[in-house]
Structure formats: structure tokens, C-alpha cells
Amino acid sequence: MTDSKTPNAIPTLGRYPQLDRVRAPHDMRNLSVEQLKQLADELRAETIDAVSTTGGHLGASLGVVELTVALHAVFDTPDDRVIWDVGHQAYPHKILTGRRERIRTLRQPGGLSGFTRRSESEYDPFGAAHSSTSISAGLGMAVAHHLRAEEDPAYRERNVIAVIGDGSISAGMAYEAMNNASHCGPGAERLIVVLNDNEMSIAPPVGAMSNYLSRLMSSRKFLSLRELAAKMAKRLPGRLERTAKKADEYARGIMTGGTLFEELGFYYVGPVDGHDMNQLVHILRNLRDAEDVGPVLLHVITEKGHGYTPAESAGDKYHAVSKFNVVTGEQKKGPSGPPSYTSVFAKELVRQAATDDRIVTITAAMPSGTGLDKFAKAYPDRFFDVGIAEQHAVTFAAGMATEGLRPFCAIYSSFLQRAYDQVMHDVVLQKLPVRFAIDRAGLVGADGATHAGSFDIAYLGCLPGITLMAPSTEVELMHMTATAIAFDEGPIGLRYPRGAGLGLALPAAGEVLEIGRGRIVREMTRQSGPEQGGIAILSLGPRLEHALKAADMLAAHGLSPTVADARFAKPIDTALVEQLARNHAVLITIEEGSVGGFASFVMTHLAKTGLLDRVRFRPMTLPDRFIDHNTQDAQYIEAGLDAAAIVDTALSALGLPQSRQMA
Fold first, then answer.
1. Residue 260: per-residue pLDDT
2. CB contact at 8 A, 606 and 615
3. What is the DSSP code (8-state) at residue 431?
4. Cα(463)–Cα(467) distance, integer angstroms
5. Is 8 known as a binding-site position?
6. pLDDT tens per residue, range 261-273
7. Active site residue 242
8. Is the peptide bond before 657 cis (omega within 30 degrees of 0)?
């Protein structure tokens, strides 16, 4: 087997002569524009070939191929910093920065991350996988370089380039950074923000910013006039040069009506064709060599999926793909299986909305990812995509709740973290009945730690008065969706995982559950004392399947446990917890979340009632570290949350040899 770190691991070696010569960006610095064009064509083909074998975020990467080549050819990376917002478009960047030999390990166990990562390469100055962080980070770097240069005259100030998409720049954090940049003094002068405007992030962009950028795109291109005027002005005496600059500003105002970015203190350049290497190279060189222009915003127009016909013609521009046939673009789909948790939630919500016109839905630029595209199709007037603005989404939902609507705010667990203050201050503190549909709870596979929903039980459960549910199956998810709709007493959340359900037969409709009430799923023997039955397993969420497998394995050892489904992380079913603690020697809790979540709530109650003194309590949670990208099953084995780990935890608590020793 070929080592993935050796050149022989590149199946296309010899096919792309220009790309074969580039081992690192410095190999590009003396190439002509024509050679860079050829390099871009070869880089695009290599990216397509690589992602066809791994799957991943293809469309965004294809859209920035020319921009990637131009940036590395013009700037002195890695000393000059290039920051890719989100980072899912950085596959071509990885190929050019010494990682071509490993690009076919992308998103694979032990392979390259699907996003930028500081520990992976010196060419990744900032790790990313969530949007809208690049300008803030870049500004911080630029200011740090300036302060260091002031202390050390031998230190050369670096250029810092933040590449951000038109979807990401709609988020509030991007504006906060731009607003601050104009007040950071000379430290911000080497900051260049490249606005990669492809009119599409994951879904088509929404809101005023999208319309504003469209108007800018259609305005007269005046870059060449400005560059000519600037060069002429430098040859004039100081007083006349200042007059010329004022005339330039006045002319720009006439031609474009001014720009929001210039009002924020940025020198606006564009729009520019992001696939025209001639334009990109010359403009980037001018910006690299310019002095005293302050922070710059370069507006680049690109096409997501550019250069690959199947991607260009697809509705989602091949944003995220499975393995596919390079020639036809046909994606390799696995055998059809049970519906996903996401689709089960969406279907039940659509069904319920037919008879309840108070149900409204909100998502933050993820209509298809959250399943709400189905709701949007059925009830477009009650569906709201607010763009990449989770904070606004939550408070927007809170406002709806004050007026008697039943808002469902559907956001991935890891993205809801971005709106934590709004959840606490605007929803929970006011006891508003906002429904949080928390998708991608638990470990998520190839997207890795950045997208894992590891912390929502802990960060939401500590808030007074919130109700948190976690379905163990897709049937339970239907019941919990119905329960959330009927619950008007305050905020309520239901967390559910990425991926397919168990394939259970679904009822015609979900049933409303009693709040804070769990259920006994399997009671192998009648319990009548602390040493009889021995073991109780209390599961929260989809680990119930593995708890039942563990019960079968323990039964084979003559240790038949009781298995319970908690259903609610908050409020916990105190009667069920007390019953399990009184009637068993060992009580195990298991959850797909971090330390500080469901187990902590159970343990606190046991301690307060004195029951912790009489039962051997063993919490099973995600470990106190990040789990890297892998398959979901492999991640849970690594985390120690599979059936075998449950068995070993139970045997250890009883002082018995673990399963491998008993086999």
C-alpha cells in the first residue's frame, strides 16, 4: 500500500505539468500570467479529481481557483497571511501549499481536515469552519504585525488578506470587524478584504446585502480610471495631489452613489471578474504595493462550481457532494435506508402546520440542511430564512413568540452556540415559548469537531426554566415535535442527530408527551432491592439503541439490566431517577454530549436526596477533548459511547472482569 505522504500517492502526477512543478507557493512567484492561467486550469482539474474520490465541499472550491492562484502568486505567503472564511473553499489552497500528496485523504480518518486548520499547515494562519470570522481575525493579525514592527525596525509588516463570501459578509460579526477597522489606525492599513461574491453560499443569499451587491455589480467599472488617476496624482505637488484625491472621491460618488464599505472606512475596489487572471494579478499587485490607502475591500465576482459543467448546472452548484463520477458528475449514493431525523422532524412539522397557523419557522441560511425547505414550499408565508445571522434568528423568533405565534428556530447545535446570549437574555429570561429544533446534535462524522453538537445540553441545561428533550428514535422525534408545538409555557428545545433513524414504522401523527417524564424500556427482572437486578442504564437520546445492545450482552453474562429512556434532559424525571437508584446497585447514564450535561443534572439530584451514597453512579459522556473527523460510528467508539463500552462500565462498577477478559 502506498504511503499517502509520498509523491507516488498522487494518481495524477505527470498529467498536469504546471501543477507538478509547484511544491509550494514560492514556485509560482516567477510564473507569467499565461502560466498562471494554465496552472489554474490544472488545479481545477486536480480538485475535481480529488473530491470525486473523497466527497466534500466542491462548488465553493471551484469558484475560487483563479483567486487562490493569484493570491499565492502575488503575496509572500505564508509570511503574508491569507485567511479563508469558513474554510470549505480551501481545497485548491491546500493543494498549492504542500498538501497535494495528501489531498485524497480529505475528510477521511486521519487525513486532512475539510477546513483550514492551524496545526495542519503554516499556510493556514487561522482555523475556521463557521462563517464570518475572517475579517476580525485578519484585523487582529494586521494590528499585531504593526505593533511588532514598531518595536522591531527589522520586522517587515505583513499583508493580511481575508477572503469572505457574500453570504458570510451578511453576518453581524463581519460588520463589527469592518466598523472597527477604520478606527484601528495604521495597523489596519495592510488589511485587504476580498469579498468573494458568487451570489450563493449554501442556499441563495437573502436580504438587503444581496440586493445591494447586485446593484454594485451592475454599476460602471471604474477601477482602471482610478488607478490611472492615482498614478498621475503621485506625480503632482502635494497640494494638487490632495485635490486630485478629492476629485476621485467625488467622481466615485457620482458613478456609484458611494458604497457602504467606503462609509465604513474601506477603500472599495471592484467589481472585478474573479475568473480573469489578468485582472486579478494586476489588481492584487497594485493593492500589495499601495501605501496609505487604509483597509481595502476588493469585490470579486465568481461563479460557484465554475469550470465544471455538472456543478455549474446543478441547483446547489455541488456545494457538498458525495463521491462522484468525474465525467458525468453522477454522485455515488449508498443504498436507500430509513429517513433521516431531519426529514422526520420536517415532515411532522409540515403536517402539524396544516391545522395550526400559529406555527412559523426560522432558519439561518440552512433551509435544506434543517429540512425547512419542505416547510417553505408548503407554507412560504410562514417560513423565514434570515441569512447567516443566528443571533438575529433567535431574537426574531422571540419577538414572534411575544405576539402569540409558535416559532420554531431550526439551527445546528454548533451554530446555536453563536446565539447564546440571545437564547439566555431574549428568550429564557423572558420565558418566551420559542421552540429550538437543534439539528446535528452529537458527533457528526466527516465535518469533525467544528460541527459536532457536543455542548448544547450543557450550555442550555444550565439556564433556568428551559425544557430540553432528546429523542431516542425517529418515532420519539415525532412525539417531541408535537410536544414542542403544544408547549406554550416557555422555551423548549429538541436535539436530534445527523443521519438516518432506525427504520421504525412511523405513526400517522406525533403524540404530546408529559413534560419531564421518562420511560422504562426494558425491565428484565422485578426490582425489589439495591442488589437485585444489579444494573440500570438510563439513556438520553439515540444511544438507547446501544444501551439495549449492551443489555443483551450483559444478559449473556447473567446480568440482566434495566434500561430506561430519559426523554428529557431538563426537567429530569426525578421519580424515575430515584426508582433506578434505589433498586439497583449500579446506575449508568449515557448521553451524546459533553461533561456538564444530563449526567450532571442526575448526579446533583442524587446527591441532594442522599441516593448518591447508596448507588454506584457512572456517567458516560463525550470525553473532555475534541473528536476529529471520522465516521460517526468510529467517533462514538473512540469516545467510549458504544455498546461494548457500556458493558465494560457496568462490569467495572460491579468489580467484575471486563467483557474482553470474560470472553
1. 79
2. yes
3. T
4. 9
5. no
6. 888 888 888 788 8
7. no
8. no
Residues 536, 538: Cα–Cα separation, whole Å? 6
Contact indicator for 516, 492 with CB cutoff of 8 Å? no
Q: Which three cell numbers stand for residue 604?
A: 446533583
Grid coordinates standing for 171?
453576518
> 168 labelled as ligand-binding?
yes
The one-letter amino acid code at 612 reads L
What does the angle CA 568 – CA 570 – CA 573 come to, to the nearest 5 degrees?
A: 60
Our measurement of the distance from residue 18's CA atom to the centroid of its chain's CA atoms, rounded to an integer in Å, reads 34
Q: What are the grid coordinates assigned to 315, written together?
A: 441547483
| DSSP string computed for 225-279 | HHHHHHHHHHTS-HHHHHHHHHHHHHHHHHHH---HHHHTT-EEEEEEETT-HHH
For residue 351, indicate whether it is catalytic. Answer: no
The verdict on whether omega for the bond into residue 571 sits within 30 degrees of 0, i.e. cis, is yes
What cell was used for 186? 495604521
Segment 113-135, tens digit of pLDDT: 989 999 999 999 999 888 899 99
Cell numbers linked to 636: 462514538
Instruction: Answer whether 413's CB lies under 8 Å from 456's CB.
Output: yes
What one-character-per-residue DSSP string does 316-369 give? Answer: TTTSSB-SB-TTT--B-PPPP-SPBHHHHHHHHHHHHHTT-TTEEEEESS-TTT
Which grid coordinates belong to 613?
Answer: 451514597
Give CA–CA dist 527/533, Å, rounded.
6
Cα end-to-end span (Å), the chain: 33
Q: What distance in Å separates the CA atoms of residue 369 and residue 380, rounded to the nearest whole number?
A: 17
For residues 275, 281, 284 and 289, what is the CA-based torsion angle, rounded to 10 degrees? Answer: -170
Grid coordinates of 216: 454594485
Among 86, 76, 81, 90, smallest CA distance to 24 is for 76
Q: Give the torsion sign (CA, 525, 527, 529, 531).
A: positive
Neighbour tally for 466: CB within 10 Å? 22
Pairing outcome for strands 359-363 and 81-84: unpaired
Q: Is the dihedral of CA 458, 459, 461, 462 positive or negative?
A: positive
Q: Which of 66, 189, 199, 390 is catalytic?
A: 390
Annotated catalytic residue within 81, 94, 104, 304: 304
Say what the pLDDT of residue 258 is: 46
As a whole number of angstroms, the distance between CA 255 and CA 251 comes to 6
Environment class of residue 562 by beta-carbon count within 10 Å: exposed (0-12), middle (13-18) or buried (19+)?
A: buried
Cis before 7? omega within 30: no
Chain mean pLDDT for the chain: 88
pLDDT digits (tens, 9 = 90+) for 516-543: 999 999 987 654 444 455 899 999 999 9
195 φ/ψ angles, rounded to the nearest 5 degrees? -85, 105
418 is catalytic: yes
Report phi then psi at 572, rounded to 5: -75, 155
Asked if residues 352 and 422 have their Cβ atoms less than 8 Å apart, the reply is no
Any known ligand binding at 131? yes
Nearest to 269 by CA among 221, 313, 308: 221
Is residue 415 helix, strand or coil? helix
Q: CA 217 → CA 49, 102, 256, distances in Å?
A: 32, 38, 10
605 annotated as ligand-binding: no
Which of the following is catalytic: 158, 418, 435, 440?
Answer: 418
Instruction: Flag whether 251 is marked binding.
Output: no
| pLDDT value of residue 454 | 96
Q: Please give the model's pTM, rounded to 2 decimal places.
A: 0.86
Does 198 carry a binding-site annotation?
yes
- Burial of 74: CB neighbours in 10 Å, binned 0-12, 13-18, 19+: buried
